[in-house]
Design brief:
Blueprint (H helix, E strand, L loop, with lengths): L1 H24 L3 H13 L5 H14 L4 H6 L7 H24 L3 H11 L5 H10 L11 H9 L12 H18 L3 H13 L5
Helix pairs in contact: 1-10, 2-3, 2-5, 2-7, 6-7
Length: about 200
């Protein structure tokens, strides 16, 4: 626990700066769209590879299937994810208008999971966090789950995550954050930094 608190003290200002940038993302349509696509690409793929793919896509803003696939270099399951991206771009205006009106972050997440193909609870939480629209949702990726197991917050990393299991582990994550007196939004960065050595996305 002391290790996490030490990391938090070390990177707190960087976290606050990044959170400020995320709030700006939520006020800028193009940045919000980039985060939307980025979060659809991230499952089982490296974050930096996915962000590079997003930047490449937006360099030309073409959304035909062959072009999208050609820009997803290094992204796993790129053919399936290309379909998600193309459909997501078509729905983006609806997404933005709907999410902007919602005040409850959990309701916003449920709407995304229900209405956006390829977006599960982790991806929806990630998108809401990266656009400044969530403060108490957990992004349960492999880095977070690995550390929750290490610190005894969960007994094992589930091979699959349905809604019930996600909510159960998220509740434990929030309780862990409260115990450490670190905001949940900040704790996510602390655990990610512990594994990667940087504050990214």
């Amino acid at each position: 626990m002391d290790e996490l608190l030490c990391i938090y003290r070390q990177i707190k200002k960087d976290i606050e700066k990044r959170i400020g940038e995320f709030k700006e993302n939520g006020r800028n349509e193009e940045k919000m769209k980039k985060e939307f696509i980025f979060c659809l690409l991230t499952p089982q793929s490296k974050a930096k590879t996915c962000w590079k793919a997003v930047e490449s896509l937006f360099s030309e803003r073409r959304w035909d299937r062959n072009f999208v696939i050609s820009r997803l270099n290094g992204v796993r399951f790129k053919y399936k994810k290309a379909e998600y991206v193309i459909e997501a771009v078509k729905k983006f205006d609806l997404v933005k208008n709907t999410i902007d009106k919602m005040k409850d972050e959990k309701m916003a997440r449920e709407w995304l999971v229900k209405n956006i193909k390829g977006m599960g609870y982790k991806e929806a939480s990630h998108f809401l966090r990266n656009t400044g629209k969530a403060e108490n949702l957990a992004i349960l990726d492999r880095h977070i789950l690995k550390n929750m197991k290490k610190y005894g917050i969960i007994n094992e990393i589930p091979p699959h995550m349905n809604r019930k299991k996600y909510m159960e582990i998220e509740k434990r994550f929030i309780e862990f954050a409260d115990y450490l007196e670190i905001p949940p939004l900040h704790l996510d960065f602390v655990l990610w930094y512990k594994e990667t050595g940087e504050v990214f996305k």
